[in-house]
């Protein structure tokens, strides 16, 4: 490990989201000596429980259990700077339903302190304090649709995007710290070409990933136009950590499920990695294909 000036902030909605989307990225930059901060917005109290022996958990009990799972996953990765937005339990998992097309949607009923119902300024200010104290050059969260429509993912996106703007303003809440401008905001996304490649293999093996969804509709789930992907952090050097961290979330993840078998196939493909879109801030330098370093092109003499 060599110490760098790199500082990275990741904002995820629930425990396990970091392990399904960001382990290789966190592990890589920790290995380089960067400071990596993870903010989780809820305890995931309304997650779908995968193990029958835990099906009796109340939302509060599941939230407490998922905190333990998250701690185990972060131990695997090596993340030591982790916070819950506003403190553990400040924002409750909003839950999720499906619309007539099978897409994720906002449920009709949710707890009063559900993250979806959070006052956006209040939530953003919790994150402003984190941004100003950690001073990340790069911040990562979901796209405006929350990648697949989960309301808490959408709200995490809104919260980070607003907080980045507020954190840079000298006029906004000086009591929360000195202003800090995040140089680049990235949105995690599917590595489209690798998902398509893995899907073909999964179908050859007879894995049914999305029952009741026709193949043309299924391909819409692969991700954005590959030309929009600006960076890919390769998975292979940290593949075992990726799998161990994901496996730590046993209440939510059954690695034998067809989807997670497909996901494993995708991770093993040559060139597979965690893909990103440019949300805002400094573009990457021109090059042949996506950058391999989320900090590429950032001038650290001005970003300290």
Automatic annotation (TrEMBL):
Biological processes, Gene Ontology terms: mycothiol biosynthetic process
Entry EC number(s): 3.5.1.103
TM region positions: none
GO molecular function, one term: N-acetylglucosaminylinositol deacetylase activity
One Pfam family of this chain: PIG-L
Domain of life: Bacteria
Keywords tagged on the record: Hydrolase, Metal-binding, Zinc
Protein known as: N-acetyl-1-D-myo-inositol-2-amino-2-deoxy-alpha-D-glucopyranoside deacetylase
Species of the source: Tessaracoccus flavus
């Amino acid at each position: 490990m060599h110490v760098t000036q790199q500082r990275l902030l990741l904002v995820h909605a629930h425990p396990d989201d970091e392990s399904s989307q960001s382990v290789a990225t966190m592990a890589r930059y920790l290995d380089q000596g960067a400071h990596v901060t993870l903010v989780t917005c809820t305890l995931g109290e309304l997650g779908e429980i995968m193990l029958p022996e835990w099906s009796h958990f109340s939302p509060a009990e599941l939230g407490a259990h998922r905190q333990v799972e998250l701690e185990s996953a972060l131990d695997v990765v090596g993340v030591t700077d982790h916070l819950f937005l506003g403190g553990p339990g400040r924002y409750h998992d909003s839950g999720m339903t499906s619309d007539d097309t099978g897409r994720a949607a906002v449920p009709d009923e949710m707890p009063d302190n559900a993250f979806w119902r959070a006052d956006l300024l209040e939530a953003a200010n919790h994150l402003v304090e984190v941004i100003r104290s950690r001073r990340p050059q790069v911040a990562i969260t979901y796209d405006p649709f929350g990648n697949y429509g989960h309301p808490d993912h959408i709200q995490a996106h809104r919260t980070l995007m607003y907080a980045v703007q507020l954190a840079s303003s000298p006029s906004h809440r000086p009591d929360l710290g000195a202003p800090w401008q995040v140089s680049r905001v990235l949105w995690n996304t599917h590595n489209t070409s690798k998902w398509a490649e893995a899907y073909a293999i999964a179908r050859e093996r007879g894995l049914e990933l999305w029952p009741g969804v026709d193949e043309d509709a299924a391909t819409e789930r692969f991700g954005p136009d590959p030309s929009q992907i600006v960076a890919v952090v390769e998975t292979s050097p940290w593949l075992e950590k990726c799998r161990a961290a994901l496996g730590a979330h046993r209440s939510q993840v059954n690695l034998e499920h067809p989807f997670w078998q497909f996901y494993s196939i995708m991770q093993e493909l040559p060139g597979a990695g965690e893909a990103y879109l440019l949300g805002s801030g400094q573009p990457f330098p021109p090059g042949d294909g996506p950058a391999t370093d989320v900090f590429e092109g950032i001038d650290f003499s001005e970003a300290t």
